[in-house]
Amino acid sequence: MPEPVASSSSTPWYWRPLFWAVADAVLYGNGLLAAAAAALVAASARYWQQPLPLSVPGLVFVATLLVYNLNGARRHNLRLPPNVPARRRWIVQHRPLLLVVVLGSAAAVLALYFTSPFIERLTWFLAHLALLSLAYSWPVLPGRNGGRRRGLRDIPGLKTLLIGYVWSAVTVWLPALCLEQSLVSAPVGLLFARRFFFILAIALVFDLRDISRDRRAGTATLPVLLGYERGRYVALGCVVASASLVLPGLPLTTGQWVLAVPTLLTALVVWFAEEARSDYYFALLADGLLLVQAVALYVAATMLGT
Fold first, then answer.
1. What is the pLDDT of residues 156-181, one digit of tens each?
2. In the beta sheet, which residues pair with residue 150?
3. N or C end of the chain, less CB within 10 A?
4. What per-residue confidence (pLDDT) applies to 6?
5. Strand, coil or helix: 248
6. How far apart are CA 266 and CA 108, in angstroms?
7. Could you give the dihedral angle defined by the CA atoms of residues 97, 99, 102 and 105, in that order, rounded to the nearest 10 degrees?
8. Distances in Å between the alpha carbon of 34 and those of 65, 98, 101, 110, 202?
9. What is the per-residue pLDDT for 146?
């Protein structure tokens, strides 16, 4: 018998299953997404040169885990077709783990919320996001010509805009409120607008991924309404719009160039996005861009403070 060929990888073979198991849990269990949301909150406060208690990004981290894993923690049909995406298969197979994550996140959200020194500001802010969530799913709008009532999700193209608004509100307005920053000041307003267009571009990448499924389900996302190529160009337009909003106070020679890094990476991810790409392309690269954006802003703001 021929001898087995030695692997050129420096990682021992017995560690590889554990590595991929952890990677799947972090990516498909929305750990990277939650970390990116918390990092964006911390980066916003760093840009304004004000210290923010760790409990605020901590609250955003566990709240993101809770919201994005709720659907995965419900009961699923265990009989999956052979061509089901890897992410969907992982969610179905690891429902007990996701249920633990959801319950633990819910407990952490309540603990951080009720012990927060900003509880009054958080209450009003989170209340309007909760109402938006309810209106998105529940039929609160009158139907056309006496037809069935509709939710906000039935309004064509609104889904992506709502994602952009909620993420921008949580990662910019929430820390601004905690730090008693004016929401209409230039540093806050421009950061919100820049963040909104950036999140919109990322959300459109996932809409491009799901365009066939959304067409079958009758979900009128922007790529479904405009077509795949036009949807891609809208996403690139959002990248350009985000980059064109110059944040006041950052050094022009260094800080603004640091922010160009996630802009260029986002444009590349949008350009090469295809339905046939693996789940890792979207879970690692697209979601990872949010973390890169946070790191870039934090570094640029650190230059401002030195």
1. 778 889 889 999 999 999 999 999 99
2. 141
3. N
4. 42
5. coil
6. 32
7. -60
8. 6, 14, 12, 17, 15
9. 60
What is the token pair recorded at 277? 């790409």
Q: Are 168 and 202 within 8 A, CB to CB?
A: no
CB 65 within 8 A of CB 101: yes
Residue 96 structure tokens: 């007990």
Which among 27, 20, 16, 22 is positioned nearest to 87, based on CA atoms? 27
Q: Which two tokens stand for residue 110?
A: 């309540």
* Residue 141 bridge partners (DSSP): 150
Quote the tokens at residue 67. 């919201």
Spatial separation of the C-alpha atoms in residues 77 and 174, rounded to whole Å: 38
**What angle in degrees, to the nearest 10, is found between the helix axes of 86-93 and 95-114?**
80
Q: Residue 103 in contact with residue 119, Cβ under 8 Å?
A: no
Instruction: Specify whether the backbone of 70 is left (phi greater than 0), alpha (psi in -120 to 50) or beta.
Output: alpha
Per the CB < 8 A criterion, the answer to whether 227 and 291 are in contact is no
Write the pLDDT tens digit of every residue in 40-82.
999 999 999 999 999 999 999 999 999 888 877 776 666 666 6
Structure tokens belonging to residue 158 = 């609104």
**Whole-number Å distance between alpha carbons of 71 and 126:** 20
- Closest of 208, 303, 294, 191 to residue 247, by C-alpha: 191
Cα separations in angstroms, 266 against 193, 262, 275, 290, 291? 17, 6, 17, 9, 12
Confirm if 178 and 192 have CB atoms less than 8 A apart.
Answer: no
Instruction: Sort 52 into a burial class: Cβ within 10 Å, 0-12 / 13-18 / 19+.
Output: middle
At residue 3, does pLDDT exceed 60?
no
| pLDDT surpassing 70 at residue 153 | no
Exposure letters 92-130 (e unless 16+ CB within 10 A, then b) = bebeebbeebbeebeebbeebbeebebeeebeebbeebe
